[in-house]
Every structure is written in C-alpha cells, then in structure tokens.
Amino acid sequence: MANLPGTTDRRIDALLTLLTENSTIVISGEKIAKEIGVTRQQVWRWVQKMRELGVRVKGHARTGYHIERAPDILVPQLLSRRLFGTPFARRIYHFFKIDSTNTVAMQLGEQGEPHGALVLAEEQTAGRGRAGRKWISEKSAGIHCSILMRPPISPAHAPLLTLVAGLAARDAAAEELDVLPDIRWPNDLLVRGRKFSGILTEMHAEPDRMHYAVIGIGINVNQTKMPAELADFATSLRIETGKVHSRLEVLIRLLRHLDRYYNQFIAEGAGPILRRFAEVSSYFQGKRVRITTPIEVFTGTTAGLESSGVLRVMRDDGGGIESVLSGDVAEAS
Ligand code: BTN
C-alpha cells in the first residue's frame, strides 16, 4: 500500500474492528492492548478520541470496554472483510479528514496504484462537484468515496463508466428508500425531484488510451437538513425516510453493485448498461430538458443515449438531434 500522510492509523482501525465485532461483550484494556500491540494507556487515549468522534464506548481501562452501538465509521478492516472477492477489498485508504478523496485517488493513480484502490473520508474540507462546484461533506453524515479504476477502454467510452457508477449508486440507495430513485443523466440521483447523490469522474488519458479514471461518489445519507440555499434541490436518505441509515451498509452495497455492473460492462460492452439506464432513468427518453453546456443553453426533449453513453436531445429550435457529451441537464416545463 502507498504510504499516504493523514490516513487513519491501522491500529485505530484494528481497535474499532475489535470493539465492533465484539459489541456484546466487555473486553479488558489489557486484552485489547495485547491484540493490537500498544500500551493500555494508548488504548485509553484512542477510546477517548473515538468518544470525541461520537462512538459510544462504555467502560474504562480497569473494567474493560464495550461498544454501546456499532459505530457508523467506514472502518477499512471491516469493509475489507465484507468486500472479499471484489477488487475493492485490498487497498482501502481511510481518512477522518481530507481535502478531497478524488484528489488523493488521482495521486494514487499517478503513483501506479492498482485498479480498485478505494479512498474514503469521514469528512472532506474541499469536496469537489462537477463544473467546478463544491460538494458539501459534513463529518460522518454522508459517504465520500473515490475509486481508482484502470479499465481497458478508450477515453471515448468514459461516459459509460460514469453510467456504470450511477447505476450502482442508484441500486444501493433504492434498497433504503420507499420510493424509487431516478437518475438524471449522466448520474445525479434524485428522489422526489431532489438530488441526494452525485458523481465526479476524472481521468488521465491519451487520445486513444485511458491510463486511469477516478470515480468520486458522494451520497447524502444521514444529514438532517440541507443548507438553506440548497434545500429546494438537495436532500438526504434520512430526510426522505425519517430514519437513520448505516453508511457502512450502503457503501458495501454500492461497491458490490459497482463490481457487478463493471464486470458486465467489460465482458459484454455497453448494451446491458444502456438497457438498464433506460429502465431506471426517466431522463432516457421523452423528457423535456434544459441543457447548459460551456458554450450554450438550449431546450429540447431527450431521445435516448448513443452507444458511448452520450445523451441525445431533440432541440426545440429545429436544429435536430444534439449529442450532449457533458453539460448540466435540468428538467424543463
Ligand atoms: C456532483 O454531483 O457535482 C458530483 C459530486 C461528487 C462528490 C464526490 S464526494 C467524493 C469525491 N470527492 C470529491 O471531492 N468529490 C467526489
């Protein structure tokens, strides 16, 4: 594994895993210290740190510790076990706080890290969205993850990779919601018209060869309210359902679905991905939309996707079918 400054200490990871997996019993400070190879004082200091992070650990050094409720922290050791058999189980870089997981994953790509490396953060201080926007990444409320991929495809097919990730996030979220989520091309996830997840794909490529791509996924999970200026457009799973959701479980499902869709895409090509998108997105065909690209704004009606994943829009101004490679899509009246 690459040595990255700021990643969560492996021993804190081990302590969290130990306490979570033995949540019904009290474990002595001495036993914990022995298992993870630190002093009892160090165990006590880390327990204090975890309490500050909101993990409810009961007990103290003399009597032993136990966890009141499994913490919803994206603990690498636990994740790794649950993701066994996928390429995401082997290299998991976890941060309590980082500027942007996408920035870290791009650096890992540059350093030659293999396909499947995963970067996770409980909090991002400079989370990035599409078109230079910010992605608000409050501590431990959402999922902020970036996946390094080295797909054997040409850069022209990169939009398909973005669709693959959007479908995976959609399926993971659908299991948490009472109503079906929609996908606004290319991969904004909406519930009752408000966005709760976005994906930022970045890549390093030559015209005919992709070196690596980073898929950055943000999901609003347990936010209880959105900032006032976003409240009309943005939401979270918790706001929609009134329930607390396990970020760990949603993330595991997201990565398992991603593994499935990605393998299908590499083995069978674009067909199944495009068909699935047509099934689950109301934006696929016949949707009135306003498209904003770096050069113009126009309205029209969606007319399916090209085999590369690009959106086709029949323009209102008589200009025929436009292929939208990238741009903002909004529902038009
Ligand atoms: C968008 O809808 O504008 C895309 C949002 C992507 C946010 C995620 S959070 C994890 C990863 N790290 C970032 O800085 N951005 C992406």
SSE blueprint and pairings:
Layout: H1 10-21, H2 29-36, H3 40-52, E1 57-60, E2 64-67, H4 76-82, E3 92-98, H5 101-110, E4 118-124, E5 142-149, H6 158-174, E6 182-184, E7 188-191, E8 194-206, E9 209-220, H7 237-241, H8 247-268, H9 271-280, E10 285-292, E11 297-305, E12 311-315, E13 321-324, E14 328-331
Parallel strand pairs: 3-4
Antiparallel strand pairs: 1-2, 4-5, 5-9, 6-7, 7-8, 8-9, 10-11, 10-14, 11-12, 12-13
Biotin (BTN) is lined by residues 100-102, 124, 127-130, 133, 135, 144-146, 188, 198-200, 216-218.
Structure description:
- Helix content is 31%, strand content 28%.
- It is built from nine helices and 14 strands.
- The strands form three sheets. A seven-stranded mixed β-sheet has the order 3-4-5-9-8-7-6, sandwiched between helices.
- A hairpin with a 2-residue loop joins strand 7 (188-191) and strand 8.
- Helix 6 (158-174) crosses helix 8 (247-268) and helix 6 packs across helix 9.
- The longest helix has 22 residues, at 247-268.
- It is elongated and about 80 Å long.
- The model has no long low-confidence stretch (mean pLDDT 92).
- It binds biotin (BTN).
- Biotin binds next to helix 5, strand 5, strand 8 and strand 9.
Keywords:
elongated, alpha+beta, 333 residues, five-stranded antiparallel β-sheet, seven-stranded mixed β-sheet, binds biotin
